[in-house]
């Protein structure tokens, strides 16, 4: 059984997203794309049906080198049909743990990726990706967020419902959000942009990697 694989709902995933969240999940990702520099190398992990490629092409019609890694073969088939302009796109069918990255990237894009993982696996995936981000490179991060306090009750209830649904349909392993911001910050990432959506339930963060090399495993084990 493959975990975190959305093959079963590849055809309806975007519809379901927009039905529940309207354009919040879309806007949370699109608003980050202006940070991608011209002629950048970009790693997109867990991009789903690939609509984000068309949004990127509206800003950069050419000049980008994109590696697009997706575990769902049906999602990847849809992504391959997208209009990417003249950007160079390499499509990779793999989970990120098995993909052997052989290059450094200027930008890493992960949207609603880490909510699939438990805390320890999320930390390990972060480590695998982060070492391939160039110093001063940008990580465009979008995911769910629950802050303690007023308004957290309905967000937790909704997230629990989603975990129950996707746990059954896509065998998602996680049952709660990992503490990703702590992992980014402990590895020397600096927040250079931040925005909330859907009454604070969704957040988008632009992290910049420090030029100083972090001690990955020490931070993950602390």
Molecular structure report:
By secondary structure, this protein is of the alpha/beta class. The protein has a single domain (7-221), classed as Rossmann fold (3-Layer(aba) Sandwich). Helices cover 34% and strands 25% of the residues. A seven-stranded mixed sheet has the order 3-2-1-4-5-7-6. Helix 4 links the parallel strand 2 and strand 3 (86-93). It starts with 12 loop residues before the first helix and ends with a helix. Mean pLDDT is 88; it is low at 214-222.
Q: Which overall shape is indicated by the principal axes computed on the Cα atoms?
A: globular
- First-residue to last-residue Cα separation: 32 Å
Alpha-beta content class: alpha/beta
Text of the CATH class? Alpha Beta
Summary of the model, kept short:
With 222 residues, this protein is of the alpha/beta class. The protein contains eight helices and seven strands. The longest helix has 18 residues, at 152-169.
